[in-house]
From TrEMBL:
This is PTS transporter subunit EIIC. It is a multi-pass membrane protein. GO terms for cellular component: plasma membrane. InterPro entries: Glu_permease_IIB, PTrfase_EIIB_Cys, PTS_EIIC, PTS_EIIC_1, PTS_IIB_1, PTS_Sugar-Specific_Components. The active site is at C29. It is found in: Cell membrane. PANTHER family: PHOSPHOTRANSFERASE SYSTEM TRANSPORT PROTEIN, PTS SYSTEM ARBUTIN-, CELLOBIOSE-, AND SALICIN-SPECIFIC EIIBC COMPONENT-RELATED. The chain crosses the membrane at residues 123-147, 153-176, 188-208, 220-240, 261-291, 395-414, 434-456. Keywords: Cell membrane, Kinase, Membrane, Phosphotransferase system, Sugar transport, Transferase, Transmembrane, Transmembrane helix, Transport.
Length: 462
């Protein structure tokens, strides 16, 4: 594989996106350089796509995303060290204009992408934590299965507390992440969210006896393991904090501004936002259950088939919120996590077929590396952009493998009982239904491999 000159690649990227002066902020994920640009129209897509090491370009969630795969971190480090760019989200006091250019049209697409960006950024800290807690719960479950006596030890009990706490205190962790995105003090929203899971408050909520606050009826609901109440609480607190810190004179601000946030914010949360969040969450889960009732086991297959297109549109975080609602209310996920894993397996199957059929040794190595990476790490962009999308016909095998494997896993009852990564290593989170997901894995790989092998003519793309 040709050696990449990262200094030159970085220089050309900066030039083709309109120069340093057109870059608001820069961040990244595992494979993508994500830029917030002052004027998206200044970016020269075709020139960037043709740069060595660039796998593709996507514009979504108000981000100009350059897919770099393994070349991401050298380029990002180069930008951080050698260019005057802001690599953290800017502090912007205007919630309504955060991270968007002033000349961008305020149409449905704009607001949709803004909502997806906001949700994905708000949930990122929480998801990282529950991945760890979920895998810890899996280890404890396996330990209990193979060594039943271990469950009676105090160490097992203590670790079980650790694995369960992030899920129970979900509204608190989500409130923290949302507040950080809104550039507000997370302590306000966390304090109110903590009250929603406070033992005595929870006792009143679950007692079944009608309760009022200021003469108004309180919707009785348990807020442990809920998602939307934490998000709504953080949004409210951000606005209240900025309002009261602005209107209260400096001499009284430090005492009365926090008092007003709690005095106004908590009743609104208890009487309106908390119940609305709980009810909307129930509707989301009801919608997922309705989908399953009408498509049966095909639901994971639909997710697996749609995932590459969500990735291409830059909205692959869209299903995270409904996935969290489904998991927190049912204790398992039998739609999204199976679909995501099987999508990555299908990416691997298509790439392996390309590697076997191509006569180009360098391209063979690229395809194998990308396919194995998708299967083991759950990162699909190098396989999608570097191989399957570039060759086009393997996309048919990719979609077919996702549908077939997802249907097999769905009809066999595959359920993820914990959070985990969307790779072959994540099959352990399916516990007693591991056989179902492994059957789906086998079908996804075989179908995507065979379809791609038949359709692909062996040509490589330089």
């Amino acid at each position: 594989m040709a050696k990449i000159d990262y200094d030159n690649l970085t220089k050309q990227i900066v030039e083709y996106v309109g120069g340093v002066e057109n870059i608001k902020t820069i961040t990244h994920c595992v494979t993508r350089l994500r830029l917030y640009l002052n004027d998206r129209n200044k970016a020269e897509d075709e020139k960037i796509k043709n740069l060595p090491g660039v796998l593709g370009v996507v514009y979504g969630n108000q981000q100009y995303q350059i897919i770099l795969g393994e070349h991401l971190f050298p380029v990002f480090d180069n930008l951080e060290k050698n260019y005057s760019v802001q690599t953290e989200a800017p502090i912007n006091e205007n919630l309504d204009e955060n991270l968007v250019s002033g000349n961008e049209k305020k149409n449905f697409k704009y607001y949709f992408e803004k909502a997806i960006t906001f949700m994905s950024q708000s949930l990122t800290p929480f998801i990282t934590v529950v991945y760890g807690a979920g895998m810890l719960k899996v280890i404890l479950s396996l330990l209990n299965y193979f060594i039943p006596s271990a469950a009676s030890s105090t160490a097992y009990t203590m670790l079980n507390f650790m694995s369960s706490a992030p899920f129970y205190f979900m509204p608190v962790l989500v409130a923290y992440g949302t507040s950080k995105v809104l550039k507000s003090n997370p302590a306000f929203s966390m304090a109110i969210a903590l009250t929603l899971v406070y033992p005595d408050f929870n006792t009143i909520m679950t007692a079944g006896k009608a309760t009022t606050m200021f003469g108004l009826p309180v919707h009785l609901a348990s807020y442990g393991s809920t998602l939307l109440p934490g998000i709504f609480t953080a949004i409210l607190c951000a606005y209240l904090e900025r309002f009261f810190y602005r209107v209260i004179p400096g001499l009284f601000r430090s005492v009365f501004a926090p008092l007003c946030v709690f005095l106004i914010g908590f009743p609104i949360v208890v009487l309106a936002l908390g119940p609305i969040g709980n009810i909307v969450g129930s509707w989301i889960v009801a919608g997922i259950i309705w989908l399953q009732a009408h498509v049966g086991g095909f639901a994971p297959g639909i997710i697996a088939a749609a995932q590459p297109f969500l990735v291409m549109m830059g909205v692959n975080m869209l299903p995270v919120a409904p996935m969290m609602e489904l998991f927190s209310r049912t204790g398992y996920d039998n739609v999204f996590r199976p679909g995501w894993i099987l999508h990555n397996i299908s990416e691997c199957g298509s790439c392996c077929a390309v590697a076997l059929k191509t006569k180009d040794k360098e391209f063979r190595a690229t395809a194998l590396s990308a396919g194995i990476g998708a299967m083991l790490s759950g990162v699909s962009e190098p396989a999608l952009y570097g191989v399957n999308l570039r060759l086009k016909k393997p996309m048919i095998g990719l979609v077919a493998g996702g549908i077939a494997g997802g249907a097999v896993a769905g009809y066999m009852g595959a359920k993820a009982f914990a959070m985990g990564y969307s790779s072959i290593l994540g099959v352990v989170i399916f516990e007693k239904t591991m056989g179902a997901i492994l059957a789906g894995v086998a079908v996804s790989f075989v179908v995507s491999f065979l379809c791609t092998y038949v359709l692909y003519d062996g040509r490589s793309i330089k």
